[in-house]
Amino acid sequence: MSGWKNYVATCLRIADLVESRREPGTVPVFNKTAQGRNDALWLSVGIYLLEYLSEKAEDIGADYVSIMPAAEALLRQYPILNDEDIQFVCKLLSYENVFHYSVGEKIIPVGKTALIEQLSSSRHYRLTQTGRLVTDMASKSSEMVYSDDDARKILKAIDLGDFGRAMKLCKEIRKQLVIFSHDLRRAQERPGGSDFLEEFARHRELFEKVVTNAHETVILGLNRLKEPGMAERVDDWGEENDENLTAPQIRKALKDLAAILERLARSFAQVIYEFADSSRQKGLILDFRSLSHALVLSPPSETKLNNLLRTVGPCRNTFTYMAPHDLRGCIRSFDTEKNVTAQEFTDGVEVVEPPRWFADLLKHHREAILSELGEHGFVTLKTGIEKGWFRHDEIEMLSSLTGIYRCPESFNLPHHRISVGIGGEFETQAGNFLISGNNLALVLLGETK
Amino acid sequence: MSEIFAQMGQVYSLLLDNREVFTKPLHRKLRPGEKEAAEWLKDVDFYQAMQDFVEVQGFELRTYSDIEMPGIASEESCFLIVRTIDATPPFFGEESMMEKMSLRQGESKEFRSVWFLHLWALANYLLYTAIQRSVGEIARYTEAAFTAHDLVETAKEHIENIRQEGRPEDPASQKVWEILVDTKHPLSRRINAFLQVMVNGRFLYQPRGEEIYCQTLLGAIEMSELFERGMASLISEDQHKALFREIVDLAVSTQDEVPVLADGGGD
Predict the structure, then answer these.
(1) Which fold has domain B2-83?
(2) What is the ipTM of this complex?
(3) A189 touches chain B (CB under 8 A)
(4) CB spacing of B255 vs A290 below 8 angstroms
């Protein structure tokens, strides 16, 4: 990452030009007096944050990440700093300063200079496109259009036996392709297209050539690794360099690259088709505030309201689904040796004490319930209500009862659990029995491990 | 044979509860059983079997890799079940979310529904309109986030606007106006309940230790699907009011039964 500092230094020289107050034709003296700190504190902090976000971008792509781990590390490294100092640097790095240059008589904005951008009012940041370009240029692996050149470097690294370098190049190319693929997707989804998409359409042939060439090179690399003695060479390299790198690992990375390149090539045709198809309507940016206003002026009827809620709301299953519970029963019925597997399903499920009223009912009807469980494997809602084992006047209460409970003391089965679930409008097999309709079933689970 | 049933049961259970399975989630820890579920789903035959299994229940199983979609850890992938257009899963209902929207005993369902829909629209204002994002821009879900405070302020502004416009004459509108303007409870509590519903439904998530609420990939996809349901062509910039009507009509049409032809009604 040392290229970083040089690059930032170069940018500073450009900034000097922009900020220069020199009048044309005056004596050529550069008289800017830098008022910065001699210890380069802010620059160090800034570079640290940029490096942090750049490394995160390598891991997770162009996503926002919390800056807090970096801030905490900086506060440890520089005890004189406080959190507001870090926020100051973040603010400066995300400040959008527009530079201008002239073409003929026109003054044209150079554009976006913010290196990082903030997510809402959070402490989450990511590199901007400019920031990414800066880091990419520093690592000399900028854009996807150079992927074929980089792929050739992989081949060369393999030929030279520099397998660590080959692996590193695989990762760098993968990163370029991921960023390109995400940019392409965003551009495709953008209403009315985007500059990126237009650029892509203009240079379609170039992109296709890059992908084809890179793919061919990657396949050549894969074949090279299959050559006799190559696996041993990689192992030897690993031993010499004290790195845990094997030929299958490099092959896996190359296969992954090949698959990505194939996928990209396939998506190009679709992108071009969509770009050319002007009849295809893209969604507009909707004003949801106006929509909420319309909700007051044109409220829906009750029926429509319910349907609307079901359509737009994050509906989820409103009760515990029977299947996993029943599957435990199924497994026990099919093959008692699978008992342990069956119990594993309850791992991670919170086991709680049954509510008192429920425990009392279970206690009161202990013998009958155990008999029913012994005979059928479960108790249905219908049976429970008919026999007075459940409170039939509090159906909702029963609905909220779904879960896995410790067996009440009255059952004298300290290692067993009671599972209560409700079947929806479907049928499911539990052992040899079919549960259908809105059945509540009480199932006794086997001994815990 | 029983083993594959057990695996499918485990995956299904996870998907029903969480709607998502990640090979390695970015913003949370793996849930119990999630790692195994993701491994099984990577198998083409297993994936196909699960896809067929959930399809008849009103879901579509989808998978995205880090190459296809931002917000997924490097070299990892995720599996989601998305509600399909023409079939709402029979055991999916709004009861649970409406229950959680309740702050006091005796609040009618209509009262809670009105609040939910308004907050839903205002949250979408922050997730879409405020960042100049169309509902079809799924990949930008990684940029969509807001704090509870943002939503409180947006809601306050909205309520103040309708208060200033005065009580509508239409009785139905008047009722909605009263629910929003005259409610005495603290707005922040209602909004926290709403956010909890959205988080539980996996439409939003809150990164550990953070105050922001971010949109999930599932939330972005379902939102996009909702508006793709034949509505996109109907929406224009000056049709926001019609938009709501269209959502309602759409919701109604998806719930209606297909008319049955009388005997001999065919050609």
Answers:
(1) Aspartate Aminotransferase, domain 1 (3.90.1150)
(2) 0.83
(3) yes
(4) no
